[in-house]
Design goal:
Blueprint: E1 2-7, H1 18-37, E2 53-56, E3 59-66, H2 69-94, E4 107-111, E5 120-123, E6 126-127, E7 133-141, E8 156-162, E9 165-167, E10 172-178, E11 196-202, E12 209-211, E13 218-219, E14 221-222, H3 225-229, E15 248-257, E16 265-274, E17 281-291
Parallel strand pairs: 5-17
Antiparallel strand pairs: 1-3, 2-3, 4-7, 6-7, 7-15, 8-13, 8-16, 9-12, 10-11, 14-15, 16-17
């Protein structure tokens, strides 16, 4: 095989620019394609002898290849393939796959009540009525990284579910007062006094299944904007170009509960979605609650 690169009378191979070699690879690739596709009678004269004349400091670079160019092309294509796969692997290693800072998308669930040593939250709901007890479920999470944000705003949302529900057995009943503007009595302050109470029952809801946790999603926002954004006012301030590694927060009101649930254990599940296009992630969590 006769393959030489000359620059005047000195070898120049050690200082050639990489762009020249890329051009060299593509030229040999064209010749290989011509060799495989076209018959010998239709090949160009370049398939047998190639000469490139490139001016450089009034000298020239002459590339000569006689008879063994197919072996050279195979070697060069092997080198190109290895270079391609190595660059791809380096690119993938240098690009973060996680959508959260430090590669950790985390979620934390908690209530307004203390957690015991076994991980159960002993909750005392606020009872608006016999069948209307409620309590707050808080959720915190990590933000997304800058390239996943929209105008500096992270897009993180959570939805919830539970293993507990109750059924409306005999319809919903409402009790309210009846007033007669002509026969009712009035107080000294001029307020009308009801004549009597009446009860209305709606059988339409009989057999309805009532979940204790709404399944709709809630969006997360920055928990402490004064600390995260440097605001002087907790409700307003300049909008940052990017939300840093600040804790996000949201809340779900659990209920309605019924008093028959006192002493029962509820398991509440969450799934949090971290929006980052093709690199979006979801994290699942749960919390155990004992109704007191």
């Amino acid at each position: 095989m006769n393959f030489d690169i000359y620059f005047g009378k000195k070898y120049f191979i050690s200082t050639l620019n990489i762009d020249f070699f890329l051009f060299f690879y593509y030229c040999w690739g064209f010749l290989l394609l011509e060799t495989l596709v076209f018959p010998k009678s239709r090949r160009s004269p370049f398939s047998y002898r190639i000469q490139f004349f490139l001016p450089m400091d009034n000298d020239m670079i002459i590339l000569k290849n006689n008879f063994y160019y197919i072996y050279i092309v195979k070697s060069l294509y092997t080198l190109i393939s290895l270079t391609f796969f190595i660059s791809c692997s380096l690119f993938e290693e240098g690009t973060p796959n996680s959508s959260c800072p430090d590669g950790d998308c985390w979620v934390r669930l908690y209530t307004d009540f203390e957690e015991d040593s076994n991980g159960y939250h002993h909750v005392e709901p606020f009872w608006y009525s016999q069948n209307s007890g409620r309590f707050n479920l808080h959720i915190e999470s990590s933000p997304t990284i800058g390239r996943c944000q929209y105008n500096g705003v992270t897009v993180v949302s959570s939805r919830f579910d539970s293993d507990t529900f109750w059924e409306v057995e005999s319809g919903l009943s409402f009790t309210f007062g009846l007033y007669n503007p002509f026969e009712s009595l009035y107080t000294q302050q001029g307020s009308i006094i009801k004549v009597r109470d009446t009860t209305v029952t709606l059988n339409y809801f009989q057999g309805e299944i009532i979940p204790v946790v709404q399944e709709t999603s809630v969006n997360h926002g920055v928990k402490d904007k004064m600390e995260c954004y440097g605001w002087d006012n907790p409700k307003s301030g300049p909008t940052p170009r990017e939300t840093g590694n600040c804790v996000l927060y949201s809340k779900r009101i659990v209920g309605p509960l019924i008093r028959e649930m006192i002493g029962d254990t509820l398991k509440i599940y969450s799934e949090t979605f971290f929006d980052c296009g093709m690199n979006s992630e979801s994290v699942r969590d749960s919390i155990s609650v004992i109704i007191k």
